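INFO  loader      accepted 1 record
INFO  loader      residues=359
INFO  predictor   begin
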Amino acid sequence: MAAVFWTPVLHEFLSTHRAAIIARAREKVAARPAPRATENELTSGIPLFLDQLTETLRVSNVSSAAMADSATEHGRRLLSLGFTVAQVVHDYGSVCLAVTELADETRAPITAAEFHIFNHCLDDAIAQAVTEYGRRREQAISDEGTERLGNLAHELRNALGAAILSFQTLKTGSVGMGGSTAGLLDRSLRRLAALVDSSVAQVRIEVGTRSPQRASLREIIEEIEVGAAMEASARGLTLTVTPVESGVDVRVDRQLLAAALTNLLQNAFKFTRANGHIALRTSPSEGRVRIEIEDECGGLPPGMADELFRPFEQHGTDRTGLGLGLSISRKSVEAEGGEIYVRELPGVGCVFTIDLPRV
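INFO  predictor   done
INFO  writer      dumping tokens
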């Protein structure tokens, strides 16, 4: 869809004052206490950042999709040249500040609407660069075959780093709470929570520190539903949870069962098609209870069902995570005397089932 915005004055300003903007931005970057500026950053990086912002601004007049593609490519290029995420965020900000100051000093006739578009482009450029960094870092970790603890440390660092930098950017007031940077902060915090929950569950399984107790399945599902509904909404998906009958009790470690269910839901959210639907339902019977999570991932390739529960296995285009979620779910359920399996709905999706003994 073609955008209705055009920024002729701002484009002309950036072209006419390119040298002055670069010089001013270099001064700001050189004076930055941390991260310390590098020679490559000052000589080559600053002009590149300005050119990329100008290009992102140009394609924003074509379509939002083109702007996103352009920002992703810019992030890929910067990071392939060795720029850190901190340098990307701070240098984009320095260039933007230099443009704003110079425009104010020269009293350039740039409208508020044009500056709004410019800030929107800055927001997307930063968010896409950080996202691309995280994706490439995760892929590099996987390719190098790093041990599990190293994987977890890098995952936590990436998610935490993205959250901190996003928050720092939001504090400057140059981008709004409804933009891409705020969305990146939200996703990073949720990712941190998921990593910590999965890691704690795995440690408890391996160390053998289970604390089984009689628990109401209804209460466990209701507790999980709150966070899951928020996650589904943030991803543009629909979640339906069928109420659990009262009196359906199981003897489990509540944290391990909650971790198993959360991992299955995260998997469903990750692979369900855009605007899709996920269903969580419970089917009690005499002596047993089945918990089913149905997604709309499109189905599985032949022979793939057995591979899903292997550790470090990842399928599909979304490679975020450690590839341990389903493996941890299986271990958690089996530790409770239950079993977990998956069946395919050809062309539609999958149904993951947890089968537990009732008290």
